[in-house]
Amino acid sequence: MTIQTVLRMGHPDLLKVADVVTEFNTEQLQTLITDMYDTMNSMNGAGLAAPQIGVSKRVVIFCVDANPRYPDVESVPDTILINPQITFLSQQQESDWEGCLSVPGLRGLVPRCNKIEYSGYDLEGKQILRTAEGFHARVVQHEVDHLDGILYPQRMADLATLGYEDVLFPDADA
Ligand code: NI
């Protein structure tokens, strides 16, 4: 179990375009993914991208299952997604609150496409292909943005909605 330090906004590595993974099922990739899970779970995150722990590879994980950080949202399947691609299936955008382990303590309203198809590979190199809506689609877009050096404040339409979570949601349990 290795909990890694999550880089915070301002670190130049968070702004890099990450490298495509060319070899699957390697010990190095397995270790990276284990570290990502240990790190994400230690911080109650909904997702994590490899660049957030300083590894410039196109690997993301996400899982939403009764997460105390997002008490009102639907669950999202526990997924390891390597070299992801997104196709937008709707012209419609929806705004909802996002947070990020690299932007601790803050939340902001982010417009995202509400229906997508996404594809990628698992640890063994087996293809994953899914459609997703709502919060599931949002999480995937947020994580894949990390692979292109984009943090959610860069996607916000109105920075006036960026705020500290305990101020925005004073009654939340988390
Ligand atoms: Ni994030």
Record keyword descriptors for this entry:
5-stranded antiparallel beta sheet, 174 residues, binds nickel (II) ion, alpha+beta
- CATH topology-level name: Peptide Deformylase
Helix percentage range: 10-25%
CATH superfamily membership? Peptide deformylase
| Average of per-residue pLDDT values | 94
Oligomer: single chain
Number of helices: 3
| Biggest pleated-sheet summary | 5 strands, antiparallel
- Which stretches are poorly predicted, pLDDT < 50 over at least 5 residues? none
Q: Which kinds of small molecule does this entry bind, naming each only once?
A: nickel (II) ion
Tell me the number of strands.
Answer: 8
CATH class label: Alpha Beta
N→C terminal distance: 25 Å
Strand order within the widest beta sheet: 1-2-3-6-7
The fraction of residues assigned to DSSP E strands is: 25-35%
Structural class: alpha+beta
**Rg estimate, integer Å:** 15 Å
